[in-house]
Amino acid sequence: MKLILASGSPRRKELLSRAGFLLDIHVSDCKEESACTNPGLLVEELSHEKAVAVWKELEDQIADTVVLGADTVVSIFGNVLGKPSDEEDAYRKLRFLSGKTHEVYTGVTLVKRVNEQMQCHTFHECTKVHIAQLSEEEIRAYIATKDPMDKAGAYGIQGIFGKFVSGIEGDYNNVVGLPVARVYAELKKLGWLED
Amino acid sequence: MKLILASGSPRRKELLSRAGFLLDIHVSDCKEESACTNPGLLVEELSHEKAVAVWKELEDQIADTVVLGADTVVSIFGNVLGKPSDEEDAYRKLRFLSGKTHEVYTGVTLVKRVNEQMQCHTFHECTKVHIAQLSEEEIRAYIATKDPMDKAGAYGIQGIFGKFVSGIEGDYNNVVGLPVARVYAELKKLGWLED
């Protein structure tokens, strides 16, 4: 099945390709800003914004292809953590996550033309992640790899940081950036899953 | 840090490399048989057998290098599922797992020479895995990819089958084949973590 992925994230691209989807990638330059402080609603709103922006740009060129937008944040004790602004910010975020459990929220919006109308379907998944106690040396060594800099919460679960993740509750791929199983199940439920 | 991996599994090799370990791979041809029916004890026993066999072979050539052995099985309602023997067996196993929650057990043994003596350290991790309801077509299409054939429980969580895994509880890498975070934590605790 073919999707248009409204995200430049190489990790989302890889997850969907691995799950057997064919992809076109199209990124719009919407602001990615929101006043929302509820992490679930925030990622739903931003995923909706991204998906609709791309759908509107491509509306005349695509027939029934589904556009997928997604957004991921880390939430801990009521704080929403996005991507780090610099290395010191990455250090602060990682020290905050050390030895604690946090939540990762990914919002997803699927958009498709149905009966000549734009139809949107939005949801989010939440996964709990347990991080081991990190020493200052471990945090500094991890930041030196540059891996944290483009990732919400300043870490990537799938790389070298994996050795500090003692466990999760929920969908692992949701932490990587996209709840692929939920996306597949929702497409199936909507009847939008075709070859 | 350098390890000798007593396993031919390309997935364990990748997990450890990604976590920053340097590896030598050495596989012994021990039987991998056990009368044990408790999945946690079974994987501990088999990981111990593999690690000790390699350590004994290499004893004279290695100084303080840690040998790591591991074994993974799937357990559901008291049944232990190993690798499928053929495609029909893979079908039976996948149909059994469909729409249910099962456990994945990986046992790990670390062996090192300490004060001229062989010292072993064995443990296991268990991760719960929730599988979506699978249709006959979905199972057949997955078997056609050949992905199930070399994997305990007849699936690999990290590939195309990921879209059927709705969630887990515990360490994701443990399902792939090695609880890397626990291995790292145990090496640290033992004081065996060095450059």
Structure explained in plain terms:
The structure is a homodimer of 195-residue chains. Chain A has a single domain, classed as Maf protein, CATH 3.90.950.10. The first copy, chain A, is elongated, with a radius of gyration of 17 Å. In chain A, 33% of the residues lie in helices and 29% in strands. In chain A, strands 1, 2, 3, 4, 5, 6 and 7 form a 7-stranded mixed sheet that branches. With 195 residues, the first copy, chain A, is of the alpha/beta class. The A-B interface holds A 15, 18-20, 127, 132, 157-160, 162-173, 180-185 and B 15, 18-20, 127, 132, 157-160, 162-173, 180-185. Strand 7 (165-170) of chain A pairs antiparallel with strand 7 (165-170) of chain B, so a sheet runs across the interface.
| Largest interface pair | A-B, 28 and 28 residues
Can you count the beta strands of chain A?
A: 7
Low-pLDDT parts of chain A are none
Shape of chain A: elongated
CATH architecture name of chain A: Alpha-Beta Complex
Alpha-carbon distance between the two ends of chain A: 4 Å
Radius of gyration of chain A: 17 Å
Q: What is the CATH level 1 assignment of chain A?
A: Alpha Beta
What is the multimeric organization of the chains shown? homodimer
- CATH topology type of chain A: Maf protein
Summarize the helix and strand pattern of chain A as letters: EHEHEEHEEHEHH
The tally of helices of chain A reads: 6
| Arithmetic mean of pLDDT of chain A | 94
Helical content of chain A (DSSP H or I, runs of 4+) = 25-40%
